[in-house]
Amino acid sequence: MTVWAERIGRWTDEVTGRAGTELAGSLYAVPEPDRLAAAAALGEAGLWIHADVIVGRDGGHRGVHPRTVGDVVAAGVGRVDVHLIARDLTLLDELIGLGADRVTVPLETVTDLAATAARIRAAGAAAWVALAPDVPHDRLLADPPVVDGVLTMLITPGTRAPARPELVDRAGVLARGLSCGVDGGLTPELVPACLAAGVSYLVVGRSLLGHPATIDPTTIDPAMIDPAMIDPTMIDPTTTEPATTERRIPG
Q1: Which residue has the higher pLDDT, 218 or 163?
Q2: Where is pLDDT greater, at 11 or 229?
């Protein structure tokens, strides 16, 4: 039994029994050396494997490295959703080429939704967009939808703040015409509201794969986030954490 099996079991019992609802575990919550093992545990349980590929302001990788995503895909352990968190789509073709089942890109970086979705679908992947808290969602109300789904972020992407429950209502609006997921600081207490809003895909990181004794949910990595993206009412930007800090799950 893996160190994550008990929590995966609890979350699976809570969520996957609901018709049409799927659960994903975020590899970003796991130290790099343990990510392949975590992916295998998620896949064995029938959960999606969510990988945040985060590009810092310096161009360096601050999340799950594309190489790791490629290894997970090559291992064939489960369905993979790769989520690009970056200021542009420079890495899009590389990520598409990894062979993931779903590619999620930041809505604010996309100028032509239809063309970007077509690029992703041409590689056999589903095309989703991520909607950050401060990004308008009007472009996603087209009928029929241009993309396959939207991942509504409950926190600023790349940060480790607590989820903002009021953003679940926004997900509910989008879920009326589009497959809708939520991501960011999700806890079991927030699940009923998400399901009631019509959310069908839940991405869980710290609560599922992290260890609460070693993670401060208010910390952020200053090298990872563009300061213009940070909502000062949500996060204290003076509380930081080195990008190289490693979080280990006791085994």
Answers
A1: 163
A2: 11
